[in-house]
Design a protein that fits this description.
This protein has about 150 residues and is of the alpha+beta class. The protein has a single domain, classed as Hotdog Thioesterase (Thiol Ester Dehydrase, Chain A), CATH 3.10.129.10. It has two helices and six strands, in the order E-E-H-E-E-E-E-H.
């Protein structure tokens, strides 16, 4: 992944939901051009953050044998901008899909200080994690994100 958009995983329930945080730092390279002298986190990157969080939920729920890849955005509403210095609180919930199913649907929301920035519903495919990443490395990375270091 070029942009790792989850800075901290705060809570998760296997196969159900996950919560995390994205800190928008002024040093993010995408802010240089979006927009000059008026930096705003691109809305599509808020959607990507929700998608990455869904991936972490799928990974942690499957003992790091699966990952989620988005294939379709069902709906996405943007309410206001995420700016440098904001801490975007993200939550993703499974809204369709069952254990062992290869396609899942999620609903995600991103807020800053309780104010909505994005609400989206998206679906995608569940794929073997080993096709894209080393599962053991990603398990260790998840432990760092979730503060579960041993």
């Amino acid at each position: 992944m070029r942009y790792l958009l989850i800075d901290h995983i705060t809570d998760w329930k296997s196969g159900e939901s996950i919560k995390g945080v994205k800190n928008v730092a002024m040093s993010e390279d995408f802010l240089e051009f979006h927009f000059p002298k008026n930096p705003i986190m691109p809305g599509v990157l808020l959607l990507e953050a929700l998608t990455q969080l869904a991936g972490w939920l799928e990974a942690a729920s499957s003992d790091f044998s699966n990952w989620f890849l988005i294939s379709r955005v069902v709906k996405s509403n943007f309410y206001s901008f995420a700016l440098p210095g904001d801490q975007v609180e993200l939550e993703v919930n499974v809204i369709e899909g069952q254990e062992g199913v290869k396609s899942k649907m999620y609903r995600g929301i991103g807020t800053v200080n309780g104010k909505k920035k994005i609400v989206a519903e998206f679906e995608g495919e569940v794929i073997p994690f080993e096709e894209i990443e080393d599962p053991d490395e990603q398990r260790r990375f998840f432990q760092v994100l979730a503060r579960q270091l041993k």
